[in-house]
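Standup, Tuesday
Yesterday: got the pipeline producing structure tokens again.
Today: sanity-check two examples.
Blockers: none.

Example 1:
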Amino acid sequence: MNTPKSNNPFAANNPYAAAGGYGGGYAMQPGPAPAAATAQPTLDDLVYDVTEADFQTRVLERSLQVPVLLDCWAPWCGPCRSLGPMLEKITQAYGGAFELAKINTDEAPNLSAALKIRSIPLVVLFVGGRPVDQFTGALPEGQIRAFLEKHLQPPGDPMEEVLKAAAEATEPAEAEAMLTEALQMVPGHPDATADLAERWLARSASIEEVTALLDAVPAEARGDRDAGLRKRLQILANRPAGDAKALAARIDANAKDFEARFALAAIQVFEGNYNAAFDNLLEVVLRDKAEGKPDRERARKQLIDWFDACPDADAVSRGRRYLGMYLN
């Protein structure tokens, strides 16, 4: 798009003159960052009228902080009247991913000339202080969303934000409170339930409490994490027999005492020491040279079962890697 002639009285504030048209460089420096939001933005926060006088501030400068969609309309334009409410609905649905500025072209002749408006409604997306894309006409909602998603992230899932905040919380009690509140709002959410169950297990909550928490998730929504957590509950519900020190002494005396290794590994898993348990069974896989290698196969199956229950991803990754090496 060409830069308007210099005799245009609006040229000093012409976005295309500053930006050099679509894809041009833009020299404006960002203004102060907006204050951190303390609440979910309302429609009034996200949708506003602009004029030629405040276009520079409310569209160009604001788009350095958040994308701004400019709706160019006029009172006499029938398609504008149907498009406007649709744009407002989509803006609210995106929850602050962009803002909607509305300008009456009848009251903004200089800006209309600068934008080279030939027909309305015209919708222009500004990002980083410059126009990046536009469309004309009252498009259906699906096409408008497709237009936006080329340039914007889709609306965020509020639950994902809660899960992220809980994972980053420095105090376990604070994280539990976040997850508990989230589950009050969305009962039975699989990921929030699994995250909270992990934290309950870490502080030695009762098996009954954790089971009841998991049971609140509908059966059809339960996945691999639920299955792994239930395996851990089964492990914790059955304390293995044997004395760990005595079993370790037997292994020191005979590295191929596989029964001692199986028994010690069961105790180690019960105590949450998965790395040590995996090492004991990997030794069985490596050392069993008997006809048919029955202990090797038994150890392999037990390792695969425990991989699903183990909460330590690094331990599982290491165990799987060595199991693959020893089986080859």
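Example 2:
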Amino acid sequence: MKNTCKFPVFNISNFKDYNNCVVDFESNFYVRKFRDHLKENCFLEKPHGHDFYLILIITKGSGVHYIDSTKYNVQPGAMFIISPGQIHKWELAKDTDGYVLFFTKKYFLLDFNSERLTNLPFLQSTFSQPCILLETKEVVQIISVFNKVEEEYSGRNLNYHELIRIYLNEIFIKLARFYSEKHSVKSVYNYELIQLNKFETLIDKYYKYHKPLSFYAAEMSISLKQLSYLCKKVLDKKPSEMLTDRLILEAKRLIIHSDLSITTISDNLNFNDNSYFARMFKKVCNQTPDQYRNSYSYFIFNDTNGRLLA
């Protein structure tokens, strides 16, 4: 029986660098003008994922960007923040340009603690919006920092890597301000963000194997009531909704990007009752798994005149 997921997962060293990456940067950091990135990395024609963070700001052009099957418009001022594990695909006009930046978590954490990333509103949760539409003055601010990053990256002067991380943090601070203005961001304490991050990490690790919420509460050394309060305050969701959402996200990925049967996908997600999986999927998505697969056949198989690139 075939068991093929059709999307590759790339690391930074898979991408060509205009400045002959040295070893420490080769797998941890990358920045380029987007048009140059598109020109030299024209090797992807299907949806794909990364094991690093990607930040992209569009200054020119148009198109669409599919992130985990959700469609976003590509236009000047659009800024995308993609986390490790997300699946995406481009369809871009030939004149599309901007800046693209990759970094791994361990690269950033060389000078900052893990809470710095956890506290960023656009990286707080797998449910954060991956796209921000910036105003012209905001684009100018972000591009100014990107230019400084690129200058350090190409110049490689003394301690340039430390200065790049400072500039990267500056980008995060500015984005956090813009994001908070454009999205409803609740005031939460560091402890709550850390606990939410723990819960989501546990879900990512065990969602196929442990459905009872009591397992997650026990692993976090908190009560079910505390877990419910945490999810409600930070995300306005129930813990059960978060677990279901993660199961549905994985089901969507397998439905779209693999040739597995719906029954096999249900088994892969450890549902004992295939009909229950189908009912749950339809309740959340308003489509049966088969209908969902058919509706996204374009996303998987269509060849376009646009560019489908990293």
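Quick observation on example 2: The CA atoms of residues 57 and 79 lie 4 Å apart. The longest helix spans residues 160-182.
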